[in-house]
Structure to design on (490 residues):
């Protein structure tokens, strides 16, 4: 939860200018913190922590930050000059996200007031360069944000980075529950779980479907009644087959109990392993996703975890984030679009209208017709995100897309659907995506930005590829080639 996290504002200085300057720096840092917190542009609390003057102060502060479970990152700024060798011993041990905020207390240079005292007190342009050097020299993953601290766009950039940093802290504690293995023979959903745990923190483990069935059998009618009332208030009941919907409620309650008991925020399942279950979870998985749980179909635990992370990063935002799959294209020259859907499980947070609960047979999985939510995704700019295991390293691929109202009603398509235009255009976008090895499963988000995912990837120390309006297959191929070399050397 965003409200559980705070960021520490750490201001650089030194003893050279005397105690009065240090008092002024501390007072202003507190004032800036208060105004930033009151701006409404930061999703998490900022805490003014210290004005740094010595090596020991940095080292102690970093030690404290590393161990404090509420601290999701530090934001530094140099009001005055702060010699950077005193930051080295702390910085080499920093394990939390780090943002260098290059700002200045005053917006303008005062014509009459400016003298050498003013220059000594207000020398961020000078101090932030010394500070920037040491992070570059130490090859620290960091975000640099420059601008006046009272400007709304600058505050929003800090807020946006805070969300990416929360994604890092969330990732490092994430547990994923797998029901069944990956779909037989599929390559892209595989991955090195040991490497992922070492790099991203994810604990990915399996629980028997039989245990889920035992939990389903133990669900009471009263529990199902209560969840059915929620379904009825949030969605439109477009079926008479209430027993089938009730079975989904039973599945959701049992899965949620198991997830919560183990502290898991993401799960995967597969239609190939539903032993003892009458239906593939449809609305059950969709409603869990709408509550913030990550999901991946066909045993895709990587996309399940990424869905949970993007949902954590975008908490409180209203665009929506969903597990998604590229299905089919419309290749008419004047209307080139991708149609995304899944056999059941698209998160209703991306719906344009009120989702309908419908029951239709499922061609695969050899089970009874499952209840699912059917809806159209809304229009607007968004991203699709795919994490793949390249063998020896992880690659995060993000593509900018423009979602549209589906150009066809498709009345016989019994699943939720989102239609979009990939950037730079559908065909080039597909060529780039396939060249990079992007999966068919993605996380689609209207809230999280490519910049946030880039920040996240940098903090997690994994490869990042962004396909956007300026991408060409030639440039991308060159980047992939150079990245391959670079990551072998790292
Ligand atoms: Mn799939």
């Amino acid at each position: 939860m965003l409200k559980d996290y705070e960021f520490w504002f750490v201001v650089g200085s030194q003893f050279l200018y005397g105690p009065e300057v240090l008092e002024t720096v501390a007072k202003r840092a507190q004032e800036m913190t208060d105004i930033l917190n009151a701006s409404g542009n930061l999703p998490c609390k900022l805490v003014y922590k210290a004005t740094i003057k010595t090596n020991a102060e940095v080292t102690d502060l970093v030690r404290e930050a590393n161990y404090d479970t509420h601290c999701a990152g530090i934001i530094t700024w140099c009001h005055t000059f702060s010699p950077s060798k005193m930051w080295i011993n702390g910085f080499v041990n920093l394990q939390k996200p780090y943002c260098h905020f290059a700002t200045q207390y005053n917006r303008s240079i005062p014509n009459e007031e400016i003298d050498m005292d003013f220059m000594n007190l207000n020398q961020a342009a000078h101090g932030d360069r010394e500070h920037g050097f040491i992070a570059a020299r130490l090859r620290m993953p960091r975000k640099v944000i420059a601008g006046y601290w009272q400007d709304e766009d600058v505050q929003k950039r800090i807020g946006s980075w805070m969300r990416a940093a929360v994604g890092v802290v969330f990732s490092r504690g994430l547990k994923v529950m797998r029901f069944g293995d990956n779909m037989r023979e599929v390559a892209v959903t595989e991955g090195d779980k040991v490497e992922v745990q070492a790099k991203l923190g994810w604990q990915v483990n399996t629980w028997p479907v039989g245990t889920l069935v035992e939990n389903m059998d133990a669900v009471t009618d009263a529990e199902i009644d209560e969840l059915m009332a929620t379904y009825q208030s949030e969605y439109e009941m477009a079926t008479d087959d209430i027993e089938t919907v009730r079975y989904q409620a039973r599945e959701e309650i049992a899965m949620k109990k198991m997830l919560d008991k183990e502290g898991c925020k993401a799960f995967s399942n597969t239609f190939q392993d539903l032993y003892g279950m009458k239906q593939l979870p449809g609305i059950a998985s969709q409603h869990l996703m709408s509550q913030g749980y990550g999901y991946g179909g066909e045993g895709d635990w990587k996309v399940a975890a990424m869905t949970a992370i993007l949902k954590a990063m975008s908490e409180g935002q209203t665009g929506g984030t969903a597990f998604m799959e590229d299905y089919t294209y419309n290749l008419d020259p004047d209307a080139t679009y991708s149609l995304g859907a899944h056999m059941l499980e698209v998160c209703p947070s991306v719906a344009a209208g009120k989702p309908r609960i419908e029951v239709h047979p499922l061609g695969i999985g050899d089970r009874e017709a499952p209840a699912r939510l059917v809806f159209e995704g809304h229009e607007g700019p968004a991203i699709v995100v795919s994490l793949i295991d390249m063998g020896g390293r992880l690659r995060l691929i993000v593509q900018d897309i423009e979602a549209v109202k589906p150009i066809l009603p498709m009345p016989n398509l019994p699943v939720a659907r989102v239609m979009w235009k990939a950037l730079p255009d559908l065909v080039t976008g597909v060529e780039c995506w396939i060249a990079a090895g992007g999966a068919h499963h993605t996380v689609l988000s209207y809230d999280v930005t490519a910049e946030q995912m880039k920040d996240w990837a940098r903090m997690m120390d994994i490869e990042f590829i962004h396909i956007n309006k300026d991408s060409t297959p030639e440039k991308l191929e060159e980047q992939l080639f150079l990245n391959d070399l670079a990551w072998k050397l790292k």
Observations:
- The first helix runs from residue 19 to 38.
